[in-house]
Write a structure and sequence with these properties.
The protein is α+β, with helices and mostly antiparallel strands. The chain is built from 12 helices and 4 strands, in the order αααααααααααββαββ. It has 2 domains: 174 residues, Hypothetical protein af1432 (Orthogonal Bundle); 85 residues, no CATH class. Strands 1-2-3-4 form a 4-stranded mixed β-sheet. The protein starts with a helix and ends with a strand.
C-alpha cells in the first residue's frame, strides 16, 4: 500500500499535468504499475537499511518528477525549446514524457548497490519503458524510440558521472539534486544512530527546511533554499551545485540559499 507521502506527492504531480493529457495518461499508467512500485520500494529498502543512505524510493522518485515537470514548464513559459524540439525530432510533450519516465526510474539501480547505480537503473528500467511506450504510442515507432533514448540519457546522467548533452537530461540532474529537504533524511537518521563516514549528507539534508522552484528574475528558473542551520550549505555546495555545474541546463538557473531569518547567498 502506498504511503500518505507518496499519494500526496502523486497528487501534486497530477495537478501539474492537467493541461497535458498525454503526459497525464502516462503518469497515471506508471503510478498504477505494480512492478515499478515494488522495484522502487525494494531499491529504497537497500538504500536505507542495507547501505545507510537516505531516501531513494517511491517518494523521492515522485518528488524528482514533480521538480522536473515544474522546471520544464517554466522553460516552456519562457519560450525555451527542449533538445527534442530544437533538433526537430520530437515535441515538448515528448520531452516531458521522457523526463517523467526517467524521474520515476532513475534510482531503481540502488537495488543492486550504490556504485554505478545509474547504469543499473537504465538497465532495470528498459522493460518498463518499453511496455509503457507501447501502451501509450502503439502505432508510432519513431516516438517510442525518441522518448526511450531520451529517458535513458536522463537516467544515465543523473549522477553527473556521465556527460550529458540534452536540456531534458540536464533538468533531471538538477531536479534530483533539488530533493534534499529534511524529510528525505528523516528515516535514515531515525534507524541509523551509530556514527559513520557519510553522516554529513544526512545531517546537512536535515537542515534544509524547504526548496522553492519559481520563475526567475535574471534567468528562467529560480531555485530558492531556506535552511535551519549552516550545515545545510554542505548539501548545496557538495551536491546540488555540482549537479547544476554539470547540467546543460545550468544557463537557465539562478540559485539562492540561506539560513532562515538571514540574507540569502546568491550562488548563480
Amino acid at each position: 500500500m502506498k504511503s500518505v507521502k507518496e499519494l500526496t506527492t502523486e497528487t501534486k504531480v497530477l495537478n501539474r499535468l492537467q493541461d497535458r493529457p498525454v503526459c497525464l495518461e502516462l503518469v497515471k499508467y506508471l503510478f498504477a504499475d505494480e512492478e515499478l512500485q515494488e522495484m522502487q520500494e525494494y531499491a529504497n529498502n537497500v538504500s536505507i537499511k542495507r547501505l545507510g543512505y537516505n531516501d531513494h524510493g517511491p517518494v523521492h522518485m515522485r518528488q524528482v518528477v514533480g521538480n522536473a515537470i515544474k522546471m520544464l514548464n517554466i522553460l516552456h513559459d519562457f519560450g525555451i525549446k527542449t533538445s527534442l524540439e530544437e533538433e526537430e525530432v520530437g515535441t515538448f510533450e515528448d520531452s516531458m514524457c521522457a523526463v517523467i519516465l526517467a524521474g520515476l526510474m532513475h534510482d531503481l539501480g540502488m537495488a543492486i548497490g550504490r556504485q554505478s547505480h545509474e547504469k543499473m537503473s537504465a538497465l532495470l528500467a528498459q522493460p518498463i519503458i518499453e511496455r509503457t511506450l507501447m501502451h501509450m504510442f502503439p502505432k508510432n515507432l519513431h516516438k517510442r524510440v525518441v522518448i526511450r533514448e531520451m529517458a535513458t540519457e536522463c537516467i544515465i546522467g543523473h549522477m553527473s558521472s556521465h556527460k550529458i548533452h540534452s536540456t531534458e537530461a540536464g533538468i533531471i540532474l538538477i531536479a534530483d539534486g533539488c530533493d534534499m529537504t529534511k524529510g528525505r533524511a528523516r528515516i535514515p537518521l531515525a534507524i541509523n544512530t551509530a556514527p559513520k563516514v557519510g553522516d554529513i549528507h544526512k545531517y546537512s539534508a536535515n537542515a534544509i527546511k524547504w526548496i522553492g522552484i519559481h520563475h526567475g528574475e535574471r534567468r528562467p528558473i529560480k531555485i530558492d533554499i531556506e535552511m535551519t542551520s549552516e550545515v545545510g550549505f554542505f548539501q548545496i555546495e557538495e551536491v546540488l551545485l555540482q549537479k547544476i555545474d554539470a547540467s546543460p541546463a545550468k544557463k537557465f538557473v539562478e540559485l539562492y540559499a540561506g539560513v532562515e531569518g538571514e540574507e540569502r547567498k546568491c550562488y548563480l
